Amino acid sequence: MEVLNLPLVVSLFAVVGSCLGSFANMLIHRLPQEEEIIRTPSHCPKCNAQLKVPQLIPLFSYLWQRGKCHACRKQINPRYFWVELICASLFALIGGIYGATFLAAVLCLVALCLVILTAIDLEHMIIPDEIQVALGGLGLLHVWATGKPWLIAIVLAAVGFAFGLFLRWLMVVWKKREGLGWGDIKFLAVAGLYLDWSLLAPFCFFSGMMGIFTAGLASRTEEGHFAFGPALALALLMCVLFPVFIVSGFQQIIDFIVEFSVVTINK
Ligand SMILES: [Zn+2]
């Protein structure tokens, strides 16, 4: 780490992030449609024109083509640009905080999976099993890299799964409909691998808060369903990247709520 200075590390991470963001875009497009991933070359989803080297440069190709396909001139989904920009920024942030370390590499791949999950869940309301498996494998590497006891990781994964089942049951009993999808329940189990006891309550609190927020924003289906994956993904990303900040922030919110209730009751 000492050999590489901070601006160099941050720039390197940003470049790698934009390239993997481009790969993420391909997965976001192909995973829900179960399209072949490895052998099919990158192509325009509208006219199937194969992309050549200049069109494969992340971020810049979108900008200098003004968001249009080089062959058919049809508008490219702006998601392609935003996903690459978000991945580049997240990678740069992780490189800046954690340096050129093994943990930073794991965290970057976790962030990448969470971006893919968010984009797919927002559009198709599913969380592909491939992403869950990848996040599970990275979760094991995260346990190993952070030196967290394996037993705690396994117990918390079980707690996450049980909590998901409980929420699902609660919504069936209370609202008489299936509220929480199996994708969300599996994700809660995987998320358990990344958390520790102090992060459990903050994770539930922030994902719940953001779930309420996205429920208000996102376009609901006719049955009143909305994608809960993005809220879970964002809460997990915050907990994994800034654990100390999240725990103390949550503590302050709880203190504020307690103080506010005491003042209100005493009036
Ligand atoms: Zn095209």
Question: What does this protein structure show overall?
Answer:
- The structure is a single chain.
- The chain is an all-alpha fold and 267 residues long.
- It folds into two domains: 1-100, no CATH class; 129-258, no CATH class.
- It has eleven helices and no strands.
- α1 (6-30) packs parallel to α5 (102-124).
- The mean pLDDT is 91.
- Bound molecules: zinc ion.
- The site of zinc ion has 8 residues, from loops.
Number of domains: 2
Q: Note poorly predicted spans.
A: none
Overall mean pLDDT = 91
Q: What percentage of residues falls in helices of 4 or more residues?
A: over 70%
Number of distinct beta strands: 0
Number of helices: 11
Order of H and E elements: HHHHHHHHHHH
Q: Distance N terminus to C terminus? A: 57 Å
Q: Largest sheet, if any?
A: none
Bound molecules: zinc ion
Beta-strand proportion: under 5%
Tell me, what's the shape? globular
Overall SS class = mainly alpha
Spatial extent as radius of gyration:
20 Å
Q: Topology of this protein?
A:
Blueprint: H1 6-30, H2 53-56, H3 60-64, H4 79-98, H5 102-124, H6 129-146, H7 150-175, H8 182-194, H9 197-217, H10 229-241, H11 243-266
In short:
The protein has 267 residues and is mostly helical. It is built from eleven helices and no strands.
